[in-house]
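Hypothesis: this fold can be encoded by more than one sequence.
Test: take the structure tokens below, design a sequence, compare later.
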């Protein structure tokens, strides 16, 4: 099966040739083999092939095999395990759920999420607890995700999240001044890994104009059995359906600025457009191997099924916007002057 000129493959070999204006361009030629690119290859890459550019505009996503080396992937997987081992749960530890909307669950979830904006916090799987609220699986198998400032607070994830290859890719996708707002490790635990319903990442990182772009790294093989991504190819050309708002007690929509440490802040999803979500007839599964980068537009509808298999599906994500766009003060994640947003380089 061909690679369609994916950045992570050597199916496209480059050479340097002058154009009619005397400028030197990178020209891509076909090769027979398809192997992961080296760090040197990735750092040399200055943009997308024409086929990749067309696919990005048409589909709203690119699948880039071999973008991260096995050593890089192993390093962040090991570090994630260390962070989980060091995590000491408290009564305020959050449970990540897309289903439980009870007042108590919402209060704890909102407080834990807001507190994680500039920190590194662990969040539990919803199904990790029994009816009495007790953990029914070992802690290492109970964590849904770690977030949301790993790229700034942890040296191992900092190295993984920055570099010339990522910066070049982001600028090639149209992010003139890329800046990273959020990072998270998503575990998709065996047997209890929760479903993530259809959504658009622009709901959580709204800018004017829309610029948020998601960088989704497979740290383990993602399969149909363990909950790989599903997308609606071309769906990024549709409207933003919802906005996740951070509001203050007693304030109306559009008032105030979300502050991560403010005790009276609460979060809610506001409907914006009634366009229906995709179904199985229009969705496309994206099973990928460890080391693959899936990059997609913030308006692209995507989801993942529950993991009932015996294999976890570890992934790491970055959410990146363009600094030239206006970042909404009602987005849940805000940064203080003490931890400003950084770029990808």
């Amino acid at each position: 099966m061909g690679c369609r000129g994916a950045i992570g493959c050597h199916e496209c070999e480059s050479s340097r040739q002058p154009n009619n204006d005397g400028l030197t361009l990178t020209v891509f030629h076909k090769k027979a083999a398809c192997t992961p690119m080296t760090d040197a290859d990735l750092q040399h890459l200055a943009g997308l092939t024409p086929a990749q550019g067309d696919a990005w505009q048409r589909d709203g996503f690119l699948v880039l095999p071999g973008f991260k080396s096995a050593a890089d992937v192993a390093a962040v997987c090991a570090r994630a395990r260390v962070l989980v081992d060091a995590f000491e749960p408290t009564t305020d530890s959050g449970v990540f759920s897309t289903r439980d909307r009870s007042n108590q669950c919402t209060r704890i979830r909102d407080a834990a999420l807001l507190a994680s904006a500039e920190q590194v916090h662990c969040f539990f799987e919803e199904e990790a607890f029994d009816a009495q609220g007790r953990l029914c699986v070992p802690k290492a198998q109970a964590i849904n995700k770690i977030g949301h400032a790993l790229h700034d607070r942890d040296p191992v994830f900092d190295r993984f999240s920055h570099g010339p290859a990522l910066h070049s890719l982001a600028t090639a996708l149209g992010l003139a001044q890329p800046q990273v707002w959020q990072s998270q490790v998503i575990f998709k635990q065996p047997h209890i890994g929760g479903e993530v319903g259809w959504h658009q990442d622009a709901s959580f990182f709204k800018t004017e104009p829309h610029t948020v772009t998601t960088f989704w790294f497979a740290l383990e093989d993602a399969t149909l059995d363990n909950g790989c991504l599903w997308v609606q190819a071309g769906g990024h050309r549709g409207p933003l359906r919802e906005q996740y708002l951070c509001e203050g007690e007693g304030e109306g929509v559009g008032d105030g600025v979300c502050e991560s440490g403010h005790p009276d802040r609460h979060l809610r999803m506001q409907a914006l457009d009634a366009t229906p979500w995709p179904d199985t007839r229009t969705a496309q599964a994206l099973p990928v191997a460890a080391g693959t980068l899936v990059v997609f537009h913030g308006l692209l509808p995507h989801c993942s099924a529950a993991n009932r298999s015996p294999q976890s599906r570890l992934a790491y994500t970055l959410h990146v916007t363009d600094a030239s766009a206006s970042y909404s003060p009602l987005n849940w994640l805000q940064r203080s002057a003490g931890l400003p947003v950084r770029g990808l380089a």
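The longest strand covers residues 178-186. The chain has one domain: 59-327.
Hypothesis status: open.
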